[in-house]
């Protein structure tokens, strides 16, 4: 009896997590926008571009500050640790958000584009 109960709970948890991930855009990142934020959990919006935007450097004031992002567009996007698409490129998949890029990649974004890496 206890075993059956545990299985039921596990299935329910998977369903809830999947639904939350699919709808997890910050309110500030509306449809067709790719948005980047200072601090984790979409703390302060550094800026946004429409999906498919060309490669460009981050402004000097926003350089090396990004800690979270949201891609609310149909196209993949990419951010780079150096200007001009240099350094390491990290994908921001279509219809995906990341509330915390992690310690290794925190405060490194220097350029980005609205297409795959
Ligand atoms: Ca950088």
Oligomer: single chain
Bound molecules: calcium ion
| Order of adjacent strands in the largest pleated sheet | 2-1-4-7
Give the topology string: H per helix, E per strand.
Answer: HEEEEEEEE
Tell the overall outline: globular
Mean pLDDT across the residues is: 87
Q: What Rg is obtained from the alpha carbons, in whole angstroms?
A: 17 Å
Account of the 3D structure:
The strands form 2 sheets. Strands 2-1-4-7 form a 4-stranded antiparallel β-sheet, with no helix packed on it. A 4-stranded antiparallel β-sheet has the order 3-8-5-6, with no helix packed on it. With 117 residues, the chain is of the alpha+beta class. The chain has a single domain, classed as Gamma-B Crystallin, domain 1 (Sandwich), CATH 2.60.20. The protein is 18% helix and 30% strand. The chain is globular. Bound molecules: calcium ion. Residues 64, 81-82, 108, 110 line the site of calcium ion.
Provide tags for this entry.
Gamma-B Crystallin, domain 1, binds calcium ion, alpha+beta, 8 strands, four-stranded antiparallel sheet, single chain, 1 helix, globular, 117 residues
Spell out the blueprint of helices and strands.
Blueprint: H1 2-22, E1 33-38, E2 44-50, E3 56-57, E4 66-71, E5 77-80, E6 89-92, E7 96-98, E8 111-113
Antiparallel strand pairs: 1-2, 1-4, 3-8, 4-7, 5-6, 5-8
The structure holds calcium ion (CA).
Can you summarize this structure?
The chain is α+β, with helices and mostly antiparallel strands and 117 residues long. The protein has one helix at residues 2-22, and strands spanning 33-38, 44-50, 56-57, 66-71, 77-80, 89-92, 96-98, 111-113. Helices cover 18% and strands 30% of the residues.
